[in-house]
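User: Predict the complex.
Assistant: Input components as received:
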Amino acid sequence: MSSPGTGMNALVGVGVGPGDPELVTARAVRALREADRVVAPASAVDAVGRAESIVRQACPDVPVERLAFEMAPGPARDRALGQAAGRVVELLDAGLQVAFVTLGDPNVYSTFPTLAAVVRAQRPATTVETVPGITAFQALAAQAGTVLLTGTERLHLVTALDGPGAVARALVDPDAAVVVYKGGRHLPAIAKALAAAGRLDGALVGELLGLPGERVTSVADAAAAPASYLATVVVPPAGSAGGSR
Amino acid sequence: MSSPGTGMNALVGVGVGPGDPELVTARAVRALREADRVVAPASAVDAVGRAESIVRQACPDVPVERLAFEMAPGPARDRALGQAAGRVVELLDAGLQVAFVTLGDPNVYSTFPTLAAVVRAQRPATTVETVPGITAFQALAAQAGTVLLTGTERLHLVTALDGPGAVARALVDPDAAVVVYKGGRHLPAIAKALAAAGRLDGALVGELLGLPGERVTSVADAAAAPASYLATVVVPPAGSAGGSR
């Protein structure tokens, strides 16, 4: 936050964590309060998204403008992204400092960098900043009592957007904790890959963390059906104390 | 926080982020205030550690008891750990709820899980909980304007405690962001490994993030000499927009 509230052309990506409003940092709250306009992604302009619902709880007095986004790749997503960026440019041109709310952390698998790049292509002088946020895998590990890393183990953070291939590759390293994002749809295949690697024991899946409908359970128990898009899977290093606390 | 303030035998590991007191979450503040006793690791009982200094700023009214820890592996560290755990057991036996402060996140390369395991070995009924915290790599990425992950890239989080070998192995994957913890001492060798992999451009190192003496610079510029123990190195995926914002 080099120049908050100065009215300069600034776009700030603000991470608000995975769901629980208590996991929002003081800096994120300040960034939301100091912005002239807070915008949040939503599936439609008349639908309250997860990020907006966190802002409503953490900063009830801060109004949020929704920008419609499309999750599935394709022309509809590109069009929505262009429209959202156009709206941000309008706000910046009006001299407003804009805060864009993201779930988790804006630099870890969020929409923010892509949006910021489109905005910067049109308004190169825009200052872009980010405020880090607690990620879903950290909240899941804390809630489930799973130690991810203690000594010299490694952590591999992968997505399963394209299927379980990236998960299988990460499992090659037995001393690495593996975190899988956006793998809900492929959960049965992920469970199969974990079982084949002898890593199903202790592996956890979490959905809607900190929100109504939250589910935290073992991958083994959830493997029969797909989970939701933003489900998070955490696999402790092989032979670690993870999950045994 | 299943049973805060109930006086049950509970030990809570509280992540307070890498240094800036504004990066502490509301839940961490609550856990510190609700604990009967807040303890923090320090290099000596008469030295204020980083974690304690964050608590002093985020919760000035919360007193902190120091537990002497030893960083270097060996008998001195084991002895210090045993003494620290013994003190925690004393506090728990007195019916106090104890909060142990950690830099960053208690489940990601912190001392807390090891301490908690020693305590649980002596008092198996102790409830152990953690509160997640912003990690140093997230703060570094935000501060430097480095996007770590957008689409289906991966992130490898490794330590360089044993030298640059783990870094070199992680660099094999060009589409992965690589984060190196505890690599200060080996920074010249890490820079060499990055250069050999064509990944030196855009790689950043940060020290004392959010604290007096903070340094955030390119690895190329810092490679001539060792950095400090807790230095963090961030390497964006090859060919990404990382660092170009």
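Helices of chain B lie at 26-34, 50-58, 75-93, 112-122, 136-144, 165-170, 187-196, 219-222.
Let me know if you want any component modeled separately.
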